[in-house]
Structure formats: structure tokens, C-alpha cells
Amino acid sequence: MWCISDFEIGKPLGKGRFGAVYLARSKETHFILALKVIFKSAMEKAQLEHQLRREIEILCHLRHPNILRMYNYFHDQTRIFLMLEYAPRGELYKELQKKKYFDDTRTATYMEEISEALIYCHAQKVIHRDIKPENLLLGLRGELKLADFGWSVHAPSLRRTTLCGTTDYLAPEMIAGSPHDENVDVWCVGVLCYECLAGYAPFEAATRLETFRKIREVNMTFPSWMSDGARDLISKILNRTPSLRLPLKAIIEHPWILNHSSSDLSMRRSPM
Ligand code: ATP
Ligand code: MG
């Protein structure tokens, strides 16, 4: 079993709701990783221990190039430590803020990567439920890494909601409080595609209520610079009715994705 003295602790990578994340290196092998520290007291206060345990068990078993790996975990008296794959290029959210919006190639590549990650998850009966740029990290070559798994079931990541008062990625059935399935993730892929290309989410509004109304009505307009191919894809994903949304397997076969994606995955599928 691992313990904290097995690691040299480096710079803080970010702050979580129940602790912080640090760059770390294993003393024995010099392996670099991200160590997420969660305070047990904070978890207990929020009554999330069971949830955390379940999510840890799910994450430990997921292996995909576009899902942030969790290598292992351990705990001491006061803290839980998650040994996570280090994502050197940080958050997609920050990239998007910096660049304002992404071009077709970059966005299509992300769309393919996230779709591949979700096809894998859904095959394992895991629904992410909390896809948004804040929960997407970037690997060494800029490849997408889906992080913050399954948390949203009992603990929606409140970062955006508290900071900006937005609920932009909620699917219509979530707002309605109806039962939902893996199609909520598909909805989020559509919202993400829009936000990457536009620089803002499709249903952004002054108030939460207004956003909810727009989501329910799928009331969106496209910015002038968005290409027809992207508009077609987004329109086919963002369907009010969960079962009518373009399936993930069809998203990665959509002409706009095939024409623009430069992910390693697409290279493998259609060698030059
Ligand atoms: P929660 O898990 O409770 O939702 P959170 O979303 O606030 O908490 P994380 O997303 O896990 O916390 O981590 C906080 C921040 O630390 C991230 O937004 C990211 O910037 C950074 N970070 C987390 N994990 C990694 C990692 N593996 N590699 C690089 N940076 C990371
Ligand atoms: Mg997060």
C-alpha cells in the first residue's frame, strides 16, 4: 500500500472543493503524477463518503487514452489521496478563455476524443453526467482527458454555478427532473462543440431561469463564423428528446468530424 511519504510533493496544480491537487513524484521510481488530497472531515460533513468510494472504484477500472487515469488511492487518518495521471497542459477551460474560441480542426479533434471516451464509458455502464470545459484536462500532446468522474450524481461540480451563476450544460431531461440515461452525456457533447466554436455556451442567458427556458426549447442561434458542417452536427446532437440525439458512434462518423479531426484516433481509422 502507498503512503504520503512515498512521494515528493511539488507545486499545487489546483484547488478542489474538498482539498487540493499537487504535482508529485514517486521517490522510488521518479514517476510523475498528480496527487489529489481530499479531507475526510469535509467529505463527512457533506455526507459524500459513500459516493466517493463508489466513484473511486469506478475510476480505478477505467482505462482509456482520453480518460484521466487513476492509478491508485490510499488514505491516512485525516485525508484521502488519489493518485492521478498528470495532465501537463491543464484545463481546456483556460485554453478556451485564452483563445476566445477554437477553429474547426481543434474542435472536431476534441469532439472525436470525447466521443471515444464516452463510448468506452457507456459500454462500462458509466455515465459521466458532468461534462464541461472545466472537467476536461489536456495531455502532453494536447489530447483531451476526461476528468472528475461521476461526481455529479450526488455532487454536481458547483464551480460554474457559484462563480458565474450558469447551468449551461444541463440537459432538458435533467432540468425537468425526469429519469435520464447516457444520452445526457451526448447532449453535453453538443453543448461543448458549440462552446468551443463560439466561445460561449448555446443557452447562456442573464438568469438561470432564462437559461432553463432556452434549454427546454432548444432555443439557440449560431454565430456567423460557424461553418455549416458544425451547425449540422450540433443541431443533430442537441435534440430535446434524448433517444433522438445523434449517437456517439454517428458523431465520430459525421462528415464535419471526418473532414476536420486530426486526433490520433482518426489517423488510425483512416490511414492516409
Ligand atoms: P471536485 O473533484 O470536487 O469536483 P474540483 O473539480 O474542484 O473538485 P479537480 O477538478 O479535481 O477539483 O481539481 C482542481 C483543479 O486542479 C483542476 O481544475 C485542474 O486545474 C487541476 N488538476 C486536477 N487534476 C489534475 C491533473 N491530474 N493534472 C493537472 N491538473 C490537475
Ligand atoms: Mg473539476
Automatic annotation (TrEMBL):
Reaction(s) the record says it catalyses: L-seryl-[protein] + ATP = O-phospho-L-seryl-[protein] + ADP + H(+); L-threonyl-[protein] + ATP = O-phospho-L-threonyl-[protein] + ADP + H(+)
Residue ranges occupied by any Protein kinase domain in the UniProt entry: 7-257
Annotated EC: 2.7.11.1
Keyword DNA damage assigned: no
Recorded GO MF terms: ATP binding; protein serine/threonine kinase activity
Pfam families for the chain: Pkinase (PF00069)
Positions annotated as active site in the UniProt record: D130
Residues engaged in binding ATP: R17, K36, K40, E85, Y86, A87, E134, N135, D148
Leading EC class: transferase
Glycyl lysine isopeptide (Lys-Gly) (interchain with G-Cter in SUMO2) cross-link, renumbered residues: K132
Regions that span the bilayer: none
Keywords: ATP-binding, Kinase, Nucleotide-binding, Serine/threonine-protein kinase, Transferase
Presence of keyword Heme: no
Domain of life: Eukaryota
Family statement: Belongs to the protein kinase superfamily. Ser/Thr protein kinase family. Aurora subfamily.
Protein name listed in UniProt: Aurora kinase
Gene name, Swiss-Prot/TrEMBL: LOC129330428
